Every structure is written in structure tokens, then in C-alpha cells.
Amino acid sequence: MNGLVLSGGASKRMGRDKALLTPAGVPQLSATFHLLSSHVDACFVSLRDEQRQEPLRAQFPGLVDGIAGIGPAAGLLAAHHAFPAAAWLVVACDLPQLDDATLAALIDARTPHQVAVAYRSAHDGLAEPLCALWEPIALARLQSQVSAGRYRLRDVLGAPDVLLLDALGNGALDNINTPDDLENLQRRMPSAQP
User: What is the mean pLDDT of residues 169-194?
Assistant: First the structure.
């Protein structure tokens, strides 16, 4: 099982690169990569082609999105194309409260009968695709879906052979997409930095 940190987004709502934010004192990309690395055999960072030379991303093994403009599906498909037999533990780089227990629960729930394991969103009850364990068959389904012009990760994770876990309720899946999200995090975590 490999790990993939999704960091190829444009961060339009935030107005600056979310991977470079330092809510815990280190860049969010670094913190996420090191956390994920302890749970997988090999870990990679997903990025767009124009991000290859960005100094922080250049420090980590990278997988460049092969298809522009399709969101996080591009990162997952780049990972699947690079290592088609691997399962992937995938996390977004903008989850500052992500912890070992949240990742371990996904791995512990893995069975041969499920094509993916994800958390159920506390907001809408659907799968959280950006903190999930994707088996090769789920990624093959994503490839077929993208070939048909559909890019929503949740469409793949809505299948009956996907295991959805209840969120742990510890804020680990709360992302920081906007300046308001970051400000709210800073209020909850006094040590948080911009």
C-alpha cells in the first residue's frame, strides 16, 4: 500500500497555496507527508506539472497529474498509472488535524471484499474521498468514469462494495479551504499559525 498526498489544487478559495500554510508550525504539506509516510510502504505527493519546481514540493517524491482540469481525480489516476497493482491511502494536504488514529482506522477496516474504505462525511453522510483507502479496482473504476467525462470521486465511492466508516468526531477531516476556515482553526488551536 502506497500513500498519496494530494497537493495539486489551485487553492483559489484560499487565495494562496494551502500546502504551504503552517497551522502547526511546519508547512501543511510536510506535516501531512510525514504523518502518512508512517502508515504506508512508499509515499508520494501529487502535483501539477507547473508545481514541479516549487521548492517544498521538490523535496518529496512526486507524481505529476496527467490530465489537467479534472481536480483530485488527476492525482489518483497518476498514482494508479505509476503503480497499477498498488492500493493507495490518499489524503488531501489541507487537513491540519489529521492524526494517526484516523489513518489507522482506515487501514484496520480494510478487507478483501471492499474496493475502498472511506469515512462518512459528518456534513452530508456521503463518502469523504480525500481521506480514503483506494484499492486498484476502485481506481480502475475511476479511470472508466473519467474516460466517460465524469470526475467526481464520490461517484466511485457510492458503490455497495465500498466500506464507509463513521467519522471519529475529532476534527481530523476538517479541511482549510478558505481564509475563514484558517481563522476558525486558529481560534480552536491557539498554537495554529497562518
Answer: 64
